[in-house]
What we know:
The complex is a heterodimer of chains A (268) and B (264).
Chain A: E1 7-18, E2 21-32, E3 36-41, H1 47-54, E4 65-67, E5 70-71, H2 77-84, E6 87-90, H3 102-113, H4 118-131, H5 147-159, E7 165-169, H6 177-194, E8 197-201, H7 205-211, E9 214-219, E10 222-227, H8 229-233, H9 238-244, H10 255-267
Helix pairs in contact in A: 3-4, 3-5, 4-5
Chain B: H1 2-34, H2 43-81, H3 89-127, H4 130-136, H5 141-179, H6 184-194, H7 197-223, H8 234-263
The complex binds adenosine-5'-triphosphate and magnesium ion.
Amino acid sequence: MTEPDRELIRVRGLNSFYGRKQVLRDLSFSVEANRIFVIMGMSGCGKSTLLKHLVGLKPSPPGSIYIEGKDISGWNHAQWNNYWLRIGILFQNGALFNSMTVAQNIALPLMVHTNLPKEIIEIMVEMKLHMVGLSGTGALMPSQLSGGMRKRAGLARALSMDPEILFVDEPSSGLDPITAAGLDELLLSLKETFGMTLVVVTHELESAFRIGDQMVVMDQGRIIAYGTPEEIRQMNDPRVQQFLSRRPDEEHRDYDSYISRLCKVKRR
Amino acid sequence: MKRLTDTFGFVGRWILGIFVGLGRIGIFFLSTLRGIAYPPSKTGLVIKQIYFIGHKSMFVIIFTGAFSGMVLGLQGYYALSKFGSEGFLGSGVILSLVRELGPVFTALMVVGRACSAMCAEIGIMRIDEQIDALRCMAIDPHGYLVLPRLMAALIAFPLLTHVFDVVGVWGGYAVGVKLLGVNPGAYWDGVYRSLEWQDIWMGIVKSLVFAVLTITISTYKGYYAGVDRGSRGAEDVSEATTSAVVTSSVTVLVADYIITSIML
Ligand SMILES: Nc1ncnc2c1ncn2[C@@H]1O[C@H](COP(=O)(O)OP(=O)(O)OP(=O)(O)O)[C@@H](O)[C@H]1O
Ligand SMILES: [Mg+2]
């Protein structure tokens, strides 16, 4: 098990673009081993993009992301494969392979990377399904699952290789409060029992403050708050407070400007 | 003057675009070959793909093979009978089939039947981030998605081509001998005597080249569906599929001409 306070991921001045459009601006933070790091922020502020950088799906400029002190921008094929074998990812849409059953999805990494006999793999698959509360659904195809079930099946697949670092993009979106709370417990127990490090993107304030050891709040590609849950709660920044108190933007309630914008649309 | 530079600029960009595309597809192909050295084991995947390409295309190959042979019998008969040499019907049918129609029609049928489906399947995996998911499992998407299809095609294409040829010869027999009254002995004699190893070899080379070209093009189109535009919509997949079918078909015909001119 990892000793606490060991810095696993360090981000320094990360900028990110889609074409000319800048979506991440000068992000800096550290993720410590055996902690749950929570990323919060409004829809479209760049959380999924940040995850893509952290797992190497989007190339990062030199000197911006370090994993265990090593700059990932210079990694070769073998170093990436090494890293990918140590991490698990839940994509925002689940990204299940739709030509395979749920069980085959979860078994795939085990089949490819281990020599375990089939029976053992079957047992491991069932264990992972049980962890996310989907026992007995292994034979279903992804298209036969509900949105929330697909999310959880994706989580089971992310867990199949018992990763050291788990990246999850909105685990509880589309889930009822009870299942969502169960998922929070699961994430906590992954940290406490298995010593995993978790990077969790979530919109759920309550769950973020319950599971998070460290958190960042993002707004339009910038970090507007970074610290422990207590530190974040005490911040006076109006944007942070607005986010925490779930207050909608003023313009959404300003009917006059709304009407005038609609009129402009019509005139154009 | 401005017009002129515009035109040159346009043509230049167009030609550059073609070379960039060729370079990218070449790199795509090489990365696929590199997958041979890496896990996962390909045997099961290849067998599944042989089933997909081979077995499922069988009916359409038999059907088109039969009709191609029948048309050859008909056309050949009327052309040859003008010179009173219906006896050459067998050799005309078999040579047209083995050298040209077999490999080309088989490739075109598989493009329509299997390559389009491959392109769509991989394109959907791209827009749904399943290809990203594969990479993050340390599973090489080229090795896992493209290579098995390529290997399967290298086995299935020649086999399907031969099925097409055999069915075609019987189609020619049915029309030429049974319908139009050519002497059966003369027909089969023409088939056996005119066919040489070189013809069969040419057919095999063609079908192997077509397999590599069509599968590489179709999987490439699917793999990069919407990537250039950074978009992830259903229309990216449909566009990629259309483009895969058109490009593969045209490439088959062009490659056919090139191979024929080299090997004849
Ligand atoms: N492939 C892409 N091409 C161009 N722009 C993109 C692409 N993907 C995302 N973006 C843009 O980048 C910004 C950040 O997107 P991202 O998906 O990271 O947001 P997010 O914080 O995960 O949002 P959500 O909470 O809704 O999932 C958005 O403004 C989006 O329009
Ligand atoms: Mg997102």
